[in-house]
Design a protein that fits this description.
With 200 residues, the chain is an alpha+beta fold. The chain is built from 10 helices and 4 strands, in the order E-H-H-E-H-H-H-H-H-H-H-E-E-H. Its EC number is 5.99.1.4.
Length: 200
């Protein structure tokens, strides 16, 4: 079987939210699985010197016009979240804990977390909200809540973020196709062609 597509994303990334609705259809066209890898962009920003788009003059205003436009184009529900951006460490840890047990549940949870923030306006940076979302998709929120306090899971999450940075991940969404990096949701058509042609 071909290698999965690695999908790196930050739950506070609106472009990651759009990509989360589109990556699996692309992968299925090429008989690929997708490995969902949530990250925290803060450590990468410290290295790259970047800042959230919302904190950048001109770019932030453009983003809040562009993202709703993309969502209308692809039929994705969207409501501008407040507060923005937020730290989403509990949700990130939750995905890795779930992934080790049932990857399909992990993906369902990740999609639900994104929807809670960018469609329903819920503050997924709050652990209670992240756990409530788990319960809403049929997961054991109590067991998950206990797991979030496990030092091993905290180390695992930190290690995943550090590994992503070592690979060169600096934004969200970020993809790897057979080791080839693609940054940004606007690279999905290029990835589609790359997979169809076997690269160039």
């Amino acid at each position: 079987m071909p290698e999965p597509i690695d999908f790196y994303f930050d739950f506070s990334s609106p472009y990651g939210y759009v990509a989360a609705h589109r990556i699996e259809d692309l992968a299925q066209r090429h008989i690929r699985a997708v490995t969902w890898r949530p990250i925290l962009l803060g450590p990468a920003f410290k290295i790259s010197g970047n800042r959230p788009l919302s904190d950048q003059a001109l770019k932030g205003d453009y983003m809040w016009r562009d993202v709703p436009r993309l969502c209308r184009r692809f039929g994705i529900p969207f409501a501008r979240p407040e507060p923005f951006p937020i730290a989403t460490v509990a949700a990130v840890r939750a995905v890795y804990w779930l992934w080790d047990r049932d990857s399909e549940q992990a993906v369902a949870y990740a999609k639900a977390v994104y929807r809670a923030y960018f469609a329903d306006g819920r503050n997924i940076g709050e652990t209670a909200v992240a756990l409530a979302v788990a319960g809403e998709v049929g997961l054991d929120a109590e067991s998950l809540g206990a797991a979030l306090q496990d030092p091993a899971l905290k180390d695992r999450t930190k290690g995943e973020v550090e590994a992503a940075i070592k690979l060169g991940v600096f934004g969200s969404p970020f993809f790897f196709v057979d080791g080839e990096p693609f940054w940004g949701g606007d690279r999905l058509p290029l990835m589609d062609e790359w997979l169809a042609r076997g690269g160039w």
